[in-house]
Amino acid sequence: MTLTVDTPAPLNTDVAVADAYRQRGARLRAASPAAAAGELAEISTAVRRDILTTIQAAGMGHVGGDLSVTDLLVTALWGTLRMHPDDHTHPQRDRFVLSKGHCAAALYSTLASCGYFPRGRLSEFMAPLSPLNGHPARLKVPGVETNTGPLGHGFPVATGCALGAKLRHETWRTIVILGDGEMQEGSNWEAAMTAAHYGLDNLTAVVDRNRLQQGARTEDTKSLEPLDAKWASFGWETRVIDGHDHEAIKAAYAPSTTGRPVAVIAGTVKGKGVSFMEDRVEWHHKVPTDEQVRLALEELSR
């Protein structure tokens, strides 16, 4: 017997959503951190709801890390970077890399909120042959700059993006978000050293510091502290913030003031927004039941 599976259609721009994003995003980028914070929080809550239903439909995902990184993602794509959902290869776009690529559901939900593809396509997450697979793929998902998933891979690529902009005398910026467990990979520290050497003040590296990784706390696995001092010793301008405070995030995403690359250590909570998931290591790679999703959506609707 031959098993056949229909290949899903390519992902194309949701024109109406992209048009709305272009106007609202421009306003949020121009607004002060305090003025933009409320709207960014509303968008983040909607993205969190989509993450839960996306993982529920797939029966797979990394819900804890998805929820911890949401506010950082939304503030980058909605409130900071110049993005072009209707022309995702625009040469003057800012670059965004999610180095912790296993949190693809959070990235896809945020991209859909911007209009890179229709929100309804999130139901195809991890389906056979779906472009929305478990790790982001550049040739399948508009808005994805590089394939990520192997930890320690995305940050070096983002460093190359920032260096490329310098070599070409371009003004676009690069933001990369890393997991804190990912900071145990040596390739990240090679990238940090390289970025400082070349004075890549157009590069911002954001650490989703939820203090949990698969199976354990980061400090029990391999101690990272003092993390801000480590970044500073590598020649980076370092900013330590609450990674769920949208005003603080947007302010921390401001360009470098020192001519050095910027490291943002964002203190977050794994499973943020859902009380029974928060700061629980088992939600790294656990799928909620239908009843748990119902309760979680109820919490996120208050």
List the helices and strands and how they pair.
Layout: H1 15-30, H2 33-58, H3 63-79, E1 95-98, H4 104-114, H5 154-167, E2 174-179, H6 186-197, E3 203-209, E4 212-213, E5 216-217, H7 218-221, H8 227-233, E6 237-242, H9 246-252, E7 262-267, H10 290-299
Mean pLDDT: 97
How many distinct helices?
10
Largest sheet, described in full? 5 strands, parallel
Distance between the termini: 51 Å
* Structural class computed from helices and strand pairing: alpha/beta
C-alpha-based Rg, rounded: 18 Å
Helical proportion? 40-55%
Provide a short characterization of the protein structure:
With 302 residues, the chain is of the alpha/beta class. It contains 10 helices and 7 strands. The strands form 2 sheets. Strands 1-2-3-7-6 form a 5-stranded parallel sheet, sandwiched between helices. Strands 4-5 form a two-stranded antiparallel ribbon.
Can you characterise this structure?
This protein has 302 residues and is α/β, with parallel strands linked by helices. 41% of the residues lie in helices and 11% in strands. The protein contains 10 helices and 7 strands. The chain has helices spanning 15-30, 33-58, 63-79, 104-114, 154-167, 186-197, 218-221, 227-233, 246-252, 290-299; strands at 95-98, 174-179, 203-209, 212-213, 216-217, 237-242, 262-267. A 5-stranded parallel beta sheet has the order 1-2-3-7-6, with helices on both faces. A two-stranded antiparallel sheet has the order 4-5. Helix 9 (246-252) links the parallel strand 6 and strand 7 (262-267). The N and C termini lie far apart (51 Å).
